[in-house]
């Protein structure tokens, strides 16, 4: 663990950009309060056996997308869920970090629900937060009707699971012209209050669709008031932040806060600044596509100091 | 001979066929009431038109975009999928700032004189 005092200078210098497009999912392993991510696969399988609990993350399924490089994101989402189902240790729940659909259409949400029902993980406990593609035109009404937790009017929620405090945030609503992701004053006030009674030793896991740090603002990859949320989280010994949105794995460590973005189950996007714009990497050939898609699983081991995150490419 | 590209652009506008989309994009610069959405940008970023002009946006990206007035001064578009269009008539003078609510860093302005 880094010393909490000298991290600010270190962080910027050691900004970790772990590029790894591949994978359908990630195994997230909680070890004594710190999250570890592992690509689903042999490594994850071995580590999962000594975990207190684990859960799986999928992201950016973009059901309704129909162009290059993936004309059939339903098939790749189905394959991602199959990966989760094939884990040797059954995850306690499935987390989808947004952009379930491409255009927020009711038929696209229905397809997502149908695909979920085909999988053991999808039929179990599923937690979601919306992406900006899930709230177009209706402020997320259809999303929340089908996938919302209904704890609070704004859609955000928290819960405790085996000693870990989980927080689901919404940063894709009420976006301002010229801005990035946005949490808003109401949600920030709620977050502050929600975290207040927790001891600093409580492991905290926050998830939201858009990156909670300024990953690449030129492409909208950040959250305008994400830094304010971090001020409430900084006192905790172990904070993990899981995001989607950018269709690739990027990590950043800032003191005791570790940020992880996830692969998409649909299509990869370019690394920051390597293309004229974000958007699908069209040139990926069909035989290579699944190596860019992934699933993540997260594993918690009581008494250790980290959550383990495992990434698994679909091919 | 020099009139040919213009003619091609006009034809593609009239037909709106997907095969001619690329030519239409080329013609955009010469089309005073059209805004192309490409590479997460509105082009032209600032468009000046006379009062009563119908302005049309066309999405050339694989990503969906929207056209929404920053201060609610004209009706918002629905999600524009690839190739979708949205049009609105500006009947009053003014400066209309708009953005894509899906990618709010994308902004543009229509100036109506």
Offer a few descriptive terms.
heterodimer; A: 315 residues; alpha/beta; Purple Acid Phosphatase, chain A, domain 2; seven-stranded mixed β-sheet; six-stranded mixed β-sheet; globular; disordered N terminus; B: 113 residues; Immunoglobulin-like; four-stranded mixed β-sheet; 2 helices
Beta strand % of chain B: 25-35%
Global geometry of chain B: globular
Q: Helical segment tally of chain A? A: 9
Low-confidence stretches of chain B: 1-30
Helix content estimate of chain B: 10-25%
As a whole number of angstroms, the C-alpha radius of gyration of chain A is: 18 Å
The dominant shape of chain A is globular
Which structural class best describes the helix and strand composition of chain A? alpha/beta
β-sheet strand percentage of chain A: 15-25%
Rg calculated over all Cα atoms of chain B: 14 Å
What name does CATH use for the topology of the largest domain in chain B?
Immunoglobulin-like
What is the CA-CA span between the terminal residues of chain A? 33 Å
State the low-pLDDT regions of chain A, or none: 1-23
The CATH homologous superfamily of chain A is called Metallo-dependent phosphatases
What is the second-level CATH architecture of chain A? Answer: 4-Layer Sandwich
- N to C succession of SSEs of chain B: HHEEEEEEEE
Strand numbers in spatial order across the main sheet of chain B: 2-1-4-6
Tally of separate helices of chain B: 2
CATH level 1 class label of the largest domain in chain B: Mainly Beta
Largest sheet of chain A at a glance? 7 strands, mixed
Got a strand count of chain A?
13
């Amino acid at each position: 663990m880094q010393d909490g005092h000298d991290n600010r200078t270190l962080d910027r210098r050691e900004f970790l950009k772990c590029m790894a497009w591949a994978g359908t999912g990630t195994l997230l392993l909680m070890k004594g309060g710190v999250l570890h991510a592992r690509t689903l696969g042999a490594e994850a399988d071995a580590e999962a056996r000594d975990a207190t609990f684990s859960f799986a993350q999928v992201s950016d399924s973009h059901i309704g997308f129909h162009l290059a490089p993936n004309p059939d994101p339903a098939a790749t989402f189905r394959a991602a869920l199959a990966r989760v189902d094939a884990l040797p240790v059954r995850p306690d729940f499935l987390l989808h970090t947004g952009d379930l659909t491409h255009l927020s259409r009711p038929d696209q949400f229905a397809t997502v629900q149908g695909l979920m029902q085909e999988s053991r993980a999808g039929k179990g406990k599923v937690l979601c937060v919306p992406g900006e593609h899930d709230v177009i035109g209706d402020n997320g009404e259809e999303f929340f009707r089908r996938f919302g937790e209904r704890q609070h009017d704004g859609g955000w929620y928290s819960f405790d699971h085996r000693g870990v405090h989980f927080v689901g945030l919404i940063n894709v609503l009420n976006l301002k012209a010229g801005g990035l992701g946005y949490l808003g004053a109401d949600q920030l006030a709620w977050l502050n209050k929600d975290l207040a009674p927790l001891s600093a030793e409580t492991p905290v896991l926050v998830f939201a669709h858009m990156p909670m740090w300024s990953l690449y603002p030129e492409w909208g990859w950040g959250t305008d008031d994400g830094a304010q949320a971090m001020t409430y989280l900084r006192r905790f010994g172990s904070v993990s932040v899981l995001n989607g949105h950018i269709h690739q794995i990027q990590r950043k460590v800032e003191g005791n806060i570790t940020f992880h973005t996830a692969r998409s189950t649909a299509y990869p996007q370019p690394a920051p600044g390597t293309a004229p714009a974000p958007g699908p990497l069209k040139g990926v050939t069909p035989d290579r596509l699944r190596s860019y898609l992934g699933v993540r699983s997260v594993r918690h081991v009581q008494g250790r100091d980290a959550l383990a995150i495992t990434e698994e490419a679909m091919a | 001979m020099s009139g040919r590209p213009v003619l091609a652009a006009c034809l593609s506008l009239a037909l709106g066929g997907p095969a001619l989309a690329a030519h239409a994009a080329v013609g955009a610069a010469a089309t005073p009431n059209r805004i192309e959405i490409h590479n997460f940008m509105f082009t032209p970023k600032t468009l000046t038109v006379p009062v009563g002009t119908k302005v049309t946006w066309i999405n050339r990206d694989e990503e969906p975009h929207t056209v929404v007035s920053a201060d609610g001064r004209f009706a918002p578009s629905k999600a524009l999928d690839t190739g979708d269009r949205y049009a609105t008539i500006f009947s009053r003078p003014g400066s209309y700032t708009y953005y894509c609510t899906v990618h709010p860093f994308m902004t543009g302005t229509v100036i109506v004189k």
